[in-house]
Amino acid sequence: MAIWLNKDSKVIVQGMTGATGMKHTKLMLGDGTSVVGGVNPRKAGQKVDFDGTEVPVFGTVKEAIEATGANVSVIFVPEKFTKDAVVEAIDAEIPLAVVITEGIAVHDTASFWAYAGKKGNKTRIIGPNCPGIITPGQSNVGIIPGDITKPGRIGLVSKSGTLTYQMMYELRDIGFSTAVGIGGDPIIGTTHIDALAAFQDDPDTDLIVMIGEIGGDAEERAAAFIKENVTKPVVGYVAGFTAPEGKTMGHAGAIVSGSSGTAQAKKEALEAAGVKVGKTPTETAKLAREILSA
After folding, report:
1. Do 41 and 159 lie in a common domain?
2. 251 is catalytic
């Protein structure tokens, strides 16, 4: 079991023929991901060879789905074209769209997120500005290194890409059911709460690790959800304990105003919901080990 991505997922890559798309398509194929097509209207009908694996290029997402049965799209399109690419994926009703691109205007993200809702939320959006999603040993969609962990029974949801990688490496001997990088922009598709609910329902996830960061109130809302709905143990980490107030830090959503949105406030909210929170990623991994070995 896993959430949202497994060995049967058929993946298309919007922007596959660009430099970034080519690089990561090759890596995803190397991790065993079933990449069945790329999308580029200017190169439709061509095939791209990835070390002996030929991947066809289609003119539209709809054509790719009809020809291959694809149910996941990963988007590596440049930021000024990303909105149109996501809207195209939504119109084609692909079940999962993973938006890797960073630097997308918040207005564009708000627009395609609202459009997905208008169309009945038939397409789950992960991202933008995220590392993607991996179910180790089955499928890897995005830019998460596929060789830093193994299949296991921990579910991971994280705002930060690099902290996703670090936590996967810290707990590599235990392994993960699925790891999801949701991105840290002010507006994102899939949230901590969405992932928490999915891991709660996944019989092969025994413990959930949740990584947040300063800014906004997503972690506080997640804490309230955990208190009411999650029975599995949750371990948390909040990046930004040393960040100065009132200063934008890294991700566009990481803005602290007074005591609202601080790492300490988020830590207290999570602990009040029964979540054990580490002060560092390593301490957080240690907490997870202690719970699983108890």
Report:
1. no
2. yes
Q: Is this prediction's pTM over 0.90?
A: yes
CA contacts within 13 A on the Cβ side of 137: 12
Catalytic residue chosen out of the listed positions 24, 107, 192, 251: 251
Q: How far apart are CA 54 and CA 1, in angstroms?
A: 29
What is the span of the domain harbouring residue 39? Answer: 10-126
Q: Are residues 159 and 289 in the same domain?
A: yes
Tens of pLDDT, residue by residue over 155-192, are 999 999 999 999 999 999 999 999 999 998 999 999 99
For residue 14, the SS3 value is: strand
Helix axes of 79-91 and 106-118: crossing angle, nearest 10 degrees = 0
- Going by C-alpha positions, the residue among 250, 246, 183, 243 that lies closest to residue 218 is 183
Q: Rounded to whole angstroms, what are the CA distances from 205 to 15, 179, 260, 270? A: 33, 11, 32, 20
pLDDT, tens only, 129-154: 999 999 999 999 999 999 999 999 99
Q: Considering Cα of 8, then 155, then 130, then 97, what sign does the dihedral take?
A: positive
